[in-house]
Amino acid sequence: MHAWRATPPAPTTILSINERKYCGSSAPPATTVSELRIRIYTDYSVTATGFYCLVTIAAGSGHHDDVGAAERRLPVRPAPDPRGGRRRRHRRPVPVAGRPRQHRCSTRSWCGGSVINNRYVLTAAHCTENSSPSQIQVMLGDLRIGTSDSGEQRFSVQQIIQHPQYTSASGSGWDFSLLKLDREISFSNTISPVCLPTAGQTYADVTAIASGYGRVGATEPQATHLQHVTVPVWSQSRCQGRWGSTIKSSMICAGGYPEGGRSVCMGDSGGPLVTEVSGRFRLIGVVSFGRPCAVANWPDVYGRVTEALSWIATNTADANTCTP
């Protein structure tokens, strides 16, 4: 499901010059200053980190300083965001939707999440990194963005609990975060918790479903209706064969169709990857990162929920969690 994103926002790329932010086609005015502090916030891609910067220095009238051009390829450490393409028809469980209350340049910033009990939402740590609870609004039962559905419920966040082993370094793993809501959830036909997976299960080669309100393609706009896509789960060894040492034990891979065109996309971060076992959905993954948008033979990477079960249990002991 879809949710929020606070700092930096997604999916917009933002240029900050002396703490003033520019995005889209906006550009800073010509100005004379003695110092420039330039920051770039950008979408995430393991295979295309960094940006290209060309700086031209021009001398003002009356000065004789040497002038010229400086070029440098600079690394960045962006927050992960999944890529993908088309999604399938609606199926349950319905993921969480959310957004930040405050934004930089973009009008909306989204991630996803999953209701796991009557008080907590599980999402990705990169979605809540550097955010405070007051910056996040969580929406449940929202099947259409921009409208107020009859069963929709909105919540403030009381507490953000980041996984202690998560770091903002690209590919660090443990991309999990818990959101404790400000009150209990009233379950309904459109809002219900998803069950956690069985400890020790790899779920290799099963069919799973990912969902969210992210983009419907790399160059397409954000979806207005909840989208789903069916994806195959890869074995850990096969995934490591594709991604190499990037893949850690806290990650699980899914997707990577030979023909491409189907996967999660920008704006789906933190959303669920579920599989059906004996008539019940199990949450096996949390959308983390991937290559740009439904690339053939490249699976997307999710947080492996079985690796976080003890941490989840410890930090949600005051709620009733659905277990196998």
From TrEMBL:
Q: Which UniProt keywords apply?
A: Disulfide bond, Hydrolase, Protease, Secreted, Serine protease
Upper taxonomic lineage? Eukaryota, Metazoa, Ecdysozoa, Arthropoda, Crustacea
Q: Which InterPro entries match?
A: Peptidase_S1_PA, Peptidase_S1_PA_chymotrypsin, Peptidase_S1A, Serine_Proteases_S1, Trypsin_dom, TRYPSIN_HIS, TRYPSIN_SER
Q: Which SUPFAM superfamilies does the record cross-reference, listed alphabetically?
A: Trypsin-like serine proteases
| Localization (cell) | Secreted
* Protein family according to the UniProt entry: Belongs to the peptidase S1 family. CLIP subfamily.
The UniProt GO MF terms for this protein read: serine-type endopeptidase activity
User: Domain Peptidase S1: where?
Assistant: 82-317
The organism sits in which domain of life? Eukaryota
For the biological process aspect of GO, one term held by this record is: proteolysis
Recorded hits in Gene3D superfamilies, A to Z, give:
Trypsin-like serine proteases
Q: Which region ranges are annotated with the description Disordered?
A: 69-101
Protein's recorded name? Trypsin-1
Main localization (coarse): secreted
- Give the UniProt entry's GO cellular component terms: extracellular space
Supply the gene name: TRYP1_1
